Amino acid sequence: MEYNDGMPLAASLCLAAALAAPPSPAAEALARKVQAYYETTRDLRAGFVQTYTYAAAGRTTVSRGTLLVKKPGRMRWDYASPSPKTVAVVGSRLTQYEPEPNQVYVDEKFDATAMSAAVAFLLGKGSLEKEFDLAVGDGGGLLLRPRREDPRVESVTLFVGPSGEVTRTQVVDGQGNVNDIAFEGLVRNAGLPDSDFEVRVPADARRVRMPGR
Predict the structure, then answer these.
(1) Residue 27 and residue 150: Cα distance in Å, rounded?
(2) What are the domain boundaries of the chain?
(3) 142: buried, middle or exposed (CB in 10 Å: 19+, 13-18, 0-12)?
(4) CA distance 70 to 73
């Protein structure tokens, strides 16, 4: 018996079984190690180098800065180069401030659940095992593929340190763009104050709307 596309039924069943195969014990162990590390992380600070590659244009940009994370629901990215910018999330409030044009965007109803799971894990949210198909990728990284279709994420690779800390993330989206972030100098559970997540915006800053809003 064959399907209309000419693939034998037996071969189709074998392919389906292969696609449904459970993750390897190594991948499961790596995912649990990462999950445990971030579930027991109250706050963290790290430097980052972000390399973004635009697939269609064949162009790459490199940014550097500092990341702060604190539970519950606080995250701040301070970009130092190529131009300064701050993006901070505190609960349902998102603030993006760019000092050079002196402009700010504020969303008081930011849906934190809309953040990619590739970022949300830093806050200890979600379950890698439930939300992704797991495998060990090239270089020994944890390769994650979303179980639900997500145009923002085709795959995520987490490179993991000895304690379960993520030292680098590589996210490929549906268009083939690659967002690669390497972390350095990570410090965990140092007791970051809430004030570190307050974005001080000048009174004369121009309020803008994000594209599509």
Answers:
(1) 22
(2) 26-207
(3) buried
(4) 7
- Whole-number CA gyration radius for the chain: 20
* Consecutive H or E run containing 186: strand 178-188
For residue range 50-105, list pLDDT tens digits in order: 999 999 988 999 999 999 999 988 999 999 999 999 999 998 899 999 999 999 99
Asked if residue 108 lies in contact with residue 102, where contact means CB atoms within 8 angstroms, the answer is no
User: What digits encode the pLDDT tens for the residues 28-58?
Assistant: 999 999 999 998 999 999 999 999 999 998 8
d(CA 54, CA 64): 18
16: left (phi over 0), alpha (psi -120 to 50) or beta: alpha
Q: Is the pTM of this model over 0.90?
A: no
Query: Any idea which residue has 């795959």 for tokens?
Result: 155
Residue 109 three-state SS: coil
Class of domain 26-207: mainly beta
Q: Is 152 left (phi over 0), alpha (psi -120 to 50) or beta?
A: alpha
